[in-house]
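Worked example

This section walks through a single chain of length 121. The input is the sequence exactly as stored; nothing has been trimmed or padded.
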Amino acid sequence: MSRAVDGSKRKDHRKKILKLAKGYWGRRHSNYKTAKDAVAKGLSYAYRDRKDRKGDFRRLWIIRINAACRAEGLPYSRLIAGLAKAGVTLDRKALAFLAAEDPGAFKTVIAKAKAALGIGA
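Given that input, the structure is written out below as tokens.
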């Protein structure tokens, strides 16, 4: 049995790789051999960075919360400890949203944390 070198499956696979490499610079978008490597590396970066994005957002939320609570005279670590003691179960995403969009509600949350810590509010 002879070996197929120009079959439809092979062509489809190459077409798929070259489609994924669309927009790449130089030969990487038109030459299958180089495009194959570039796409593999690009997909592995995409997988890794989807995981990293979660940490990036968490860091951003913490920075926003810290800035807002320091303006009220309470550092971030003390705020989180106070909220845990008070039994407030707001996550960092919600706290960051409150800090940016609803300062009044955020001040109420800080007051609860201060009360739980025994700091005069």
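What to look for: Helices lie at 8-20, 32-70, 76-86, 92-101, 103-117.
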